[in-house]
Amino acid sequence: RFVLIDTAGIRKKARIEDSSIERYSVIHAFAAVRRADAVVVMIDATQGIAEQDVKIAGFVHEEGKPCVVAVNKWDAVEKDTHTVNEYDKRITSDLAFMRYARTVTISALSGQRVDRLFELLLSARENGMRRITTGLLNECISEAVTVTEPPSDKGRRMKVYYATQVAVSPPAFVIFVNDARLMHFSYLRYLENYLRKSFDFTGTPIRLIARNKNE
């Protein structure tokens, strides 16, 4: 069973009229994202990815929501053998922070691939609730550290002691180290990618937090 919340369209700030009704609609739409179990980021295929689409997707990502990118009105687009690849490249580029999200082309008018959309939403939600046992998690982190050693600064190298999962929806992991100040963003991203390679987190953001061992 699904409860669907069809939010009001969210326009650019410059186009929002001085209307309490429209402002309320925008606030209500963002509130709907906050309480959703999974989100469909809808893109109009006839217009491509707009700047506002990227901002909305960014909000969904920051809220840690499992999501699917749905390219609607696909039946209205003139297509050739390269059309799908071109759209995929554009989405990958513009929504680089959301590469974990699956994309599906649909037609709300004809119902084309809408069933696939629901399959992907369920999968994303399940992955967002995934728990990894502490043993498996630390095996993965240990392997990642062996493959690429942690960063150092002024001769002092960061040591990774152990990791534990502290939350789901989105899955969140705390990594205990000797000095969290030595944890570069790039190394956190590397560890995230290693976790994604080892476990199925398709469709959901995950959070990694570095903490000093004595905290």
Question: How would you characterize this protein structure?
Answer:
The protein is of the alpha/beta class and 215 residues long. It contains six helices and eight strands, in the order H-E-H-E-H-E-H-H-E-E-E-E-H-E. Strands 1-2-3 form a three-stranded parallel β-sheet, with helices on both faces. Helix 3 (83-94) links the parallel strand 2 (67-72) and strand 3. Helix 5 crosses helix 6. The relative contact order is 0.12.
What are the key terms here?
single chain, 215 residues, alpha/beta, three-stranded mixed β-sheet, 6 helices, 8 strands, 39% helix
- Helical content band: 25-40%
How much of the sequence lies in strands comes to: 15-25%
Provide mean pLDDT, rounded: 90
Pairing-aware structural class of the strands and helices? alpha/beta
Note the gap between the termini: 42 Å
Coarse morphology: elongated
Secondary-structure element order, N to C: HEHEHEHHEEEEHE
Using the CA coordinates, give the radius of gyration.
Answer: 20 Å
Largest sheet: 3 strands, parallel
- Identify the strand order in the major beta sheet: 1-2-3
Oligomer: single chain
Q: Are there runs of 5+ residues with pLDDT below 50, and where?
A: none
Task: Supply the number of helical segments.
Answer: 6
Strand segment tally: 8
